[in-house]
Specification:
The chain has 265 residues and is of the alpha/beta class. The chain has seven helices and 14 strands. The strands form three sheets. It has a six-stranded mixed sheet. A six-stranded mixed sheet has the order 6-7-8-9-12-13, with helices on one face. A two-stranded antiparallel sheet has the order 10-11. Strand 3 and strand 4 form a beta hairpin. The longest helix has 15 residues. The model has no long low-confidence stretch (mean pLDDT 97).
């Protein structure tokens, strides 16, 4: 049974949560898919100058942003995945929440922090969980996790059919896009990268995000993609049962052929 998955690309306005949430809600209203994925830190913008600035917008996993996603997931019977700044006690995590059609919420906290994120966010402590819903197994990783094959492999070994990848990538698409195709191919899983676009400024300094969101099938083929500056949904059909067939010939199965005893460091 195939499932329609989608990624929403847009340019969040830095620290304007009211406008960002309104745009996300408008996007959900036009979503025509079983799963909708939004970018990393999509409710707040990305480039925080200080921990104090981050704390002013961070929310708990049952705060207003996640509650909004839950209400829409319940109403539309869809799965929503989005990045936000999660406050838990004194710690703030770069988090992606997965909200299921029954209202259940699952968080993944970014494992591999990028650049200045290390000065304001706590390192993720969730590991790489897989969420299961009605026969579909979902894994999540965030942005810079793309550079670590262990992230996607762990999710695949834990049974993920598709890896959902909220991102705020400043790396050029010629770098990360073929790598995400490789992550799909080497694990036989589908991947959905929802990258943001736009530019954020700190005085004369700027960060530009390169969009180019993509959906990739289990053989590494691109099913849907968009340009660097476009905003809106991309969508494609994926068949999760294909991700569960790790054999590609009568002789070879990419998981059964592994030799963990040879990988000891």
């Amino acid at each position: 049974m195939s499932h329609r998955v989608a990624a929403f690309q847009f340019a969040p306005d830095f620290m304007d949560t009211t406008r960002n949430v309104a745009r996300i809600e408008n996007a959900i209203a036009t979503l025509d898919a079983a799963i909708g994925v939004f970018p990393e830190l999509c409710s707040t913008g990305y480039w925080f100058r200080s921990r104090e600035e981050l704390l002013s917008l961070a929310e708990t996993a049952d705060g207003s942003f996640v509650t909004m996603l839950r209400d829409h997931a319940l109403a539309r019977k869809t799965i929503l995945v989005a990045g936000f700044a999660e406050r838990d006690g004194d710690a703030v995590y770069n988090t992606a929440v997965t909200v299921l059609p029954d209202g259940a919420r699952h968080v993944y906290r970014k494992t591999h922090l990028f650049a200045g994120e290390k000065t304001i966010f706590a390192p993720g402590d969730t590991g790489f969980p897989v969420v299961r819903h009605e026969g579909l197994s979902l894994g999540v990783m965030i942005c810079y996790d793309w550079r670590f094959p262990e992230a996607a492999r762990t999710l695949a070994l834990r049974g993920a059919d598709v890896i959902l990848h909220p991102s705020a990538l400043v790396a050029l698409p010629r770098l990360w896009k073929p790598v995400m195709r490789t992550r799909a191919f080497e694990n036989r899983v589908a991947t959905v990268t929802a990258n943001r676009t736009g530019t954020e400024w700190h005085g004369e300094a700027s960060l530009t995000f390169h969009g180019s969101s993509q959906i990739v099938d289990v053989n590494g083929d691109v099913l849907a993609e968009t340009g660097t500056d476009e905003e809106g949904w991309i969508a494609a059909e994926i068949d999760p049962t294909r991700a569960r067939r790790k054999a590609f010939s009568e002789w070879n199965d990419i998981f059964l052929d592994r030799r963990p005893d040879m990988y000891d460091l």
